[in-house]
Design goal:
A hairpin with a 4-residue loop joins β1 and β2. The protein is built from 10 helices and 10 strands. About 45% of the residues lie in helices and about 15% in strands. A 6-stranded mixed β-sheet has the order 1-2-3-5-7-10, sandwiched between helices. A 4-stranded mixed β-sheet has the order 4-6-8-9. The chain is α/β, with parallel strands linked by helices. The model has no long low-confidence stretch (mean pLDDT about 95). The protein binds ligand LHQ. The site of ligand LHQ has 25 residues, from α2 and β6.
Length: about 270
Amino acid sequence: MSLPKLPDCLLAELNESGVLTLTLNRPDALNAFDDELSFALHEGLKFAEKDKAVRAILLTGAGRGFCAGQDLKSRSIQAGSDAQVHLGESIRKRYAPIINKLSAIEKPVLAAVNGVAAGAGASIAFACDIRLCVPEAKFIQAFVKVGLIPDSGACWLLPRLIGYGRAMVLAMSGDPMTAEQAFAWGAVNKIVEADSLQSEAQALAVQLANGPTKALGLMKRAFQYGTAVSLESFLNYEADLQEIAGRTSDYQAGVQAFSEKRAPVFSGK
Ligand code: LHQ
């Protein structure tokens, strides 16, 4: 497969290590989502899911922001005097597919949060598997300021990352979660100075891309399934997943490398 043709608002680059970097590219609007960007991101993620050469995905933003959520100047979400807006439809068509895809892709997805992440922009960062951010980054549940509930999965994702109480306060107040808070509360894995964010994020993405891709993907399934079922059901599911992982070449490569006292080389198969 080759990279799909994407509009300029989403930059995509696949390197030889199998890292697909997707850069939200509407810097003048802090990478807010208009229709074009949301559909392009979904296309990019569909490619990432299907293409075997992609073994890790890195999501970041151009300019000083990560993503300011829905483009509030976009006509598609503004009600005219006699027109009714259908935000539910907008979420179902544009945001839910992105969040579902980030969670369903059986490959590690990293966010390099290079600045403010607000509204659906914060939700997208939270739906990634690992987050790095700059010290200036802020995660803002901006929805309350425009009379909405946190969407794009925020009410599901955020309590799981930082706890119900903290998430509720952020949702109801609209106050930013600073980079320091995000790190202290476990929502961000590392704070990295702006001039080394992209190189550190790339290095981590390469490390993950060199991992046992199938097992990393199955881990996502296991973590997600575990949020909703009893331990007994989970253990049954886990056995099924481990059965699959145990049939990969990477399992054989890992065991072989252990017995030869060397680092494994995983092919992702
Ligand atoms: C923007 C935006 C923006 C357009 C900054 N749109 N231009 C889903 C489905 C359907 C409907 C509704 O919602 C949703 C989900 C959502 O995401 S709802 C929440 C939408 N997002 C927001 O409410 C955040 C709005 N933005 C802000 O509060 C601030 O811009 C933040 C705190 C993100 C950053 O503040 P500053 O660093 O002070 O930057 P700024 O406000 O000066 O923005 C810089 C430029 O970016 C500015 O343009 P300009 O031409 O004046 O320089 C802003 O208008 C533009 N921009 N966010 N969401």
